[in-house]
Amino acid sequence: MIRQEFSRVDPKRRAILDHRQKQFAAPAFQNVEYKHRLNFYATPPTADITLEQFEQWAIDRLRVLAELEACSFRNKSPAETATHMKPLLDKYLPLSSSTSGSTALQAERQKDHYSHFILRLAFASTEDLRRRFSRVESMLFRLRFQADDARERMAFVEGLNLDWETVGDEERREFAEELRAAGGGYPKRIEEESYFKVDWERVPELVESRRVFLKAGKAYVPGREQLSMVVAEFTSRLDKALELTSRALPRLDEDDRLTPILTHLSQNFTTPDANYSSSSTALPGADISARNIDTLSSSFPLCMQN
C-alpha cells in the first residue's frame, strides 16, 4: 500500500480555507469591450457602477420600453414606431454606430448592456413580467436591427454562430417550385436567393404568415427574412435567460440598497400605461389605476369631478 505524505483537511475548516483567495481574486470579467452596436446580452456585466447609475440607467431604459409598448397598443406601423421612438432613443438610450467615431461609444454600449440586466432582475419575478419584458425587448432589438448599418449588422450576425444550415444548390433545385410558392412567386430564378434551413419552432412568425416552405420539421427561410430569424433567436434566448434568472432570485442575498429600486421598477411596469411612458395620455383599454386617474379625470362628467 502506498502511503501519501500529506495531511487531510478537516471538513469543518475546508470551506473557509480559501476565503482570502476568493475575496481578493480578480473577477472573470471586468470592463467589456463592445465590438458591435447590437447585443444579445449573453454575458452578465461584472464591473462596478454607482448606485445612482444603477437606478438612472434602469429608469432611462424603462422609459424607452414603456413608450415602445405604448406604440404597440396604439397599433402604430413599424415606420411610425421608428419615427416616434428615434428622439426618445437618442435622448435616453443612444447607441452610435462603430463608424461614427463617437467618443462616448463604449459608454453608450455599457449603459445599454447594464440597463438590460438591471431590468432583467426587476422583471424576472413573475411570468407576466417576464413575458412583457421579453416582448418589448424583442421589439427594441428589431427596431435597432433594422436601423443598423448593413456591414455592422452582417458582422454581428456572423459573430453569433447561429445553428443555421445552408441549403445547397441541389436541394434548392429539388424544391424550387415550393420555395417560389412560399415566397409569393419570388424569386423568379431560385439561384438568385440564398436559403437557410432551421427547425420550424425557431421561426414561428414566418410559419404563421406562411412565408416559408416546411419539410420534415424544417423551415426553409430565404435570406431576405434574416431579420425574423435573428429576432426569433433573440427572443428564444432571452426567454430561457429570464427563466433561469427567476430561479436564481430566491438564492440571491437581499441588498437593502437594490431591492427597493428593483421593486419600484417592476411596480411601475405592471400596467400598459407605465409611469415612465413619455406619453401624456392613457392608452385605450388600459386598466384604471391611481397613476392615471388625474389624466382620465378630464373626460369625467361633472358629477364625477368632485
UniProtKB/TrEMBL annotation:
GO molecular-function terms, A-Z: 4 iron, 4 sulfur cluster binding; DNA binding; metal ion binding
Positions in coiled-coil regions: none
InterPro entries named in the record: DNA_primase_lsu_euk/arc
Named cofactor requirement(s): [4Fe-4S] cluster
Cellular component per GO, a single term: alpha DNA polymerase:primase complex
Presence of keyword Heme: no
A matching Pfam family: DNA_primase_lrg_N
UniProt keywords, alphabetically: 4Fe-4S, DNA replication, DNA-binding, Iron, Iron-sulfur, Metal-binding, Primosome
Family classification: Belongs to the eukaryotic-type primase large subunit family.
UniProt name for this protein: Putative DNA primase large subunit
Lineage: Eukaryota, Fungi, Dikarya, Ascomycota, Pezizomycotina
Name of the gene: 5F3.150
